[in-house]
Design a protein that fits this description.
The chain is of the alpha/beta class. 37% of the residues lie in helices and 14% in strands.
Length: 677
């Protein structure tokens, strides 16, 4: 590492974070917006360096299976682009909407260097993990961009030059990112202008191919601003049902339609279902006049905003397009809807769970709030994450355990606050977790433990679709899907006055109840699947399997996972026996009573107010600041974010105090394994 270059890079970002150079002419606006998100939303420290992260093979398999249709369609476009760039040392990455690289084209001779740099299959380029990078910033902003060398937030990635373009699905949701990267590149940022053009064009063609693949029974209307390439390489395309209503669109088509009626681009999903005549001086009956038998320059359509376009209409395939106004879904259609891979992965063949997952698949793309009920360890958060993955929502999945955050911190953690709201708070304020889930999914775990006064504020957020951070006067609009979970009977809590009935009605629009593990029929398959995940080829002996079957699993999937981790750690061969199982499982064979998962005991009304938990004492105000800060970090197990939250300061403040108090050499006692905190 070049110490002078590293110090200069960190100083520039820190100065930007302090507002000293917000209009840096040398940086693209998209780069500065990403830096701001890294500092204010993701709470990343520019002084911390973190090597590229490659997800485990099992996790990569899940991401690839979810993205398989897109990979199949995109592959020919990727190969064509890679051939065009042969000899220029570019690497092509296709990342899914979670920022995980699910396809990759690069020179195999450079595999080790590419893997170390993160330009490899399975690399995780989310902005909240990797900082400013092309894939992460593209997912956040939804626009094509270049992140060149020192544009990267994390100094580790500054040798790279990366160019990315978004790929949208037919509903206008950001589905993937196409990235073109170099391990080494010319110093000039403009050297990547051609790469930006190529990656944008390829993304447009992939969107078109994806739209055509799924629209064989619909009218397809291709659009171009010039007639020359209308029939072979159009600028945009949309699909229409038999009644002339919009069913799908490429990104460019969505922009044309939105512009035609003056709709903000952020509200593009509202375009679906609108009739063609809302956007053009044309209705469904006029589509046959735009078929290919006429010359391209004669196929002209006028948009409602006055712009002129050339159009090519493609008829539905025979047996397709009947007007939607006359069509009604059959019983077979409604009951046999496919279950997305993210949801299918939760079951290993249990009939009751499969029925639940079919219901979940129907609920996933809706904005309807969902309440998940189930015993401790039954997999409530796994189901919530799968619902988000199957929803198509472009924003993040934000999980909040309402029972794990101290009540005195819960309001600021959930709703955030403006600068100056708190003495000792972050100087730039803080984005709350609810706002961080904008355009994504907010998962409220153990919602029954939320204090009543915060329940009222959450109810307003859900009913008004807006949030007001602490210290703010004006609310912010919020696009949010809420999933909540509890192992406590909320209806009983309502009767006892511990939970608001109106909030329960708001959260409980749909309910999914997970079965406990002891009632599932797929235990054997789950044992094999989880054992394989721990160690490929690992299996229980017949005696061990019998013990696992006999156990009642009060801790459900969490307990089963821990038992198999225990067995994998102790076994030395491909099989594990009874001697490798934890004592709680062996107690079953000895006839000792097992702890069953009982309904949780509801708290009695308090006789006196509970003591208030204040924030941690600031080490700077103690007699020995270095010792106090070291003890706080030991208490937080080296988690700088947790220490910063307890003190009400930013991560950067903690890092600066560590350096100022010369704790670097003593830090080995409490430094975390992940390298970022």
């Amino acid at each position: 590492m070049n110490a002078r270059s590293y110090a200069s890079h960190v100083q520039e970002i820190e100065s930007f974070g302090l507002g000293l150079n917000r209009s840096t002419p040398a940086r693209d606006a998209a780069v500065l917006r990403s830096w701001q998100r890294c500092i204010e939303r993701h709470r990343l420290d520019p002084a911390a360096t973190c090597e590229a992260y490659i997800v485990p093979e099992g996790q990569l398999r899940v991401h690839r299976e979810e993205s398989e249709p897109l990979i199949r369609i995109a592959r020919s476009g990727l190969e064509r682009l890679y051939q065009q760039l042969a000899g220029l040392q570019y690497v092509l990455l296709l990342a899914d909407r979670h920022g995980i690289t699910v396809d990759f084209l690069g020179h195999e001779g450079d595999a080790d260097a590419l893997r170390q740099a993160g330009l490899y299959l399975g690399s995780d380029w989310r902005e909240d993990r990797a900082g400013t990078c092309a894939v992460g910033a593209c997912l956040e902003g939804g626009e094509a961009l270049i992140i060149h060398q020192s544009d990267h937030f994390d100094y580790t990635h500054t040798p790279l030059s990366c160019t990315a373009a978004p790929i949208y699905d037919h509903r206008g949701e950001l589905a993937a990112v196409l990235d073109l990267s170099l391990l080494r590149s010319p110093e000039s940022r403009s050297s990547q202008s051609l790469a930006l053009h190529l990656v944008t064009s390829t993304a447009r063609r992939i969107e078109l191919a994806h739209l055509m693949e799924r629209s064989r029974s619909d009218w397809v209307l291709r659009l171009s601003r010039s007639p020359d390439f209308l029939d072979v390489d159009p600028d945009a395309a949309l699909t229409l049902d038999g009644a002339g209503r919009v069913r799908g669109m490429t990104q460019a088509a969505a922009r044309i339609l939105a512009q035609a009626i003056g709709l903000p681009w952020a509200e593009r999903r509202d375009l679906l279902g609108l009739p063609l005549e809302r956007f053009f001086e044309l209705d469904v009956d006029g589509l046959p006049s735009l078929l290919r038998h006429r010359l391209a320059q004669d196929r002209i359509v006028r948009a409602r905003d006055g712009s002129i376009l050339f159009a090519h209409a493609i008829e539905p395939q025979r047996g397709g397009a009947t007007p939607v106004r006359d069509a009604a879904p059959s019983a077979a259609t409604t009951t046999a809807s496919p279950v997305p891979q993210a949801l299918r992965a939760l079951s290993a063949g249990d009939a009751s769970l499969d029925a639940l997952l079919h219901k979940a698949a129907r609920l996933a793309p809706q904005r309807l709030p969902v309440m998940i009920q189930g015993e401790t360890g039954a997999g409530k958060e796994y189901l919530a994450r799968a619902l988000h993955a199957a929803s198509g929502r472009p924003g993040p999945f934000v999980a909040i355990n309402c029972a794990a955050i101290p009540e005195t911190l819960l309001e600021s953690e959930l709703f955030g606050y403006l600068p100056g709201t708190y003495t000792g708070g972050a100087s730039r304020g803080k984005t709350g977790l609810v706002e961080a889930a904008h355009r994504g999914t907010l998962f409220l775990d153990e919602i029954g433990d939320m204090p009543l006064h915060l329940q009222a504020k959450l109810l307003r957020v859900l009913s008004e679709s807006e949030i007001t951070p602490l210290g703010a006067r004006q609310p912010k609009p919020l696009d949010l899907r809420v999933i909540s979970a509890s192992h406590r009977p909320l209806a009983v809590l309502v009767e006892q006055g511990l939970f608001r009935q109106d909030l329960l009605f708001r959260l409980n629009a749909a309910q999914l109840s997970l079965p406990p593990l002891r009632l599932r029929q797929d235990l054997d398959a789950l044992i094999d699947r989880l054992a394989e995940a721990q160690c490929p080829g690992l299996r229980p002996t017949p005696e061990a399997r019998a013990l696992l079957r006999a156990h009642s699993w009060p801790g459900n999937l969490r307990e089963l996972h821990n038992a198999l981790c225990h067995a994998a750690a102790l076994s030395e061969g491909p099989c594990f026996g009874p001697e490798h199982l934890p004592e709680t499982v062996l107690a079953t064979a000895a006839g000792e009573p097992q702890t069953r998962a009982l309904p949780p005991r509801l708290p009695a009304p308090p006789q006196e107010p509970p003591p208030q938990v204040g924030k941690a004492a600031d080490p700077v105000e103690t007699a020995d600041p270095a010792m106090a800060l070291e003890q706080l970090l030991q208490r937080c197990q080296g988690n700088v974010s947790e220490a910063a939250r307890l003190l009400g300061v930013s991560r950067s403040t903690i890092h600066r105090r560590i350096q100022r108090l010369a704790l670097g050499e003593r830090r080995v006692r409490w430094s975390p394994a992940d390298g970022r905190d």
